[in-house]
Request: fold
Amino acid sequence: MSELKAIAIVGVGGQGTVLTSDILIEGLVDLGYQVKKTEQHGLSQRGGSVNCFVKYGDPVYAPLVVEGEADVVLAFEKIEALRWLKLLKKGGTLIANDHEILPIPVKMGKAEYPSDALEKLAETVEHMYILKATEEARKLGAAKVTSIILLGALVRALGLEDYDWKSIIRRKVPEKLAEMNLKAYEIGRNLMA
Reply:
């Protein structure tokens, strides 16, 4: 039997959280793990919160990740890292993309984006990686590959690098963007070095 692991992948609609979790799950199943997933979309097409919870190991009874249970929280955006930090277990790992997407109340002037989000996270998290994944994706030519950069970082954090993740990436992304996504995966792995 393998140890049960819980992962929360959180972000905003359109960032690729579901794609990242789908690739992760396919690889975990190929590796022989029992896997369960749940996802929640909150007005995801309008910039709302999206989260995917993945549990793997043996046995896995339910996919929901509860407060203090996640081994890893992978956040595609800083406010989402703050919002879902409560899921991280003591000694767990937070991987957060240093990126801001302004929620509707901020855009309407009814709220302020917390300028000290990273500092607040650093106060509470022992194992934290802040990645400039969106910035790196733009250097490659497309912000959309941010999700694959973060996948590469997650795979390294989980110690699952011995698997051929690139074959799944090739199948899951449009053919014309395959090479860019494969480069993005390597960048993500290297950001965790």
Remarks:
- Residues 5-191 form a domain with the Pyruvate-ferredoxin Oxidoreductase; domain 3 fold (CATH 3.40.920.10).
- The radius of gyration is 16 Å.
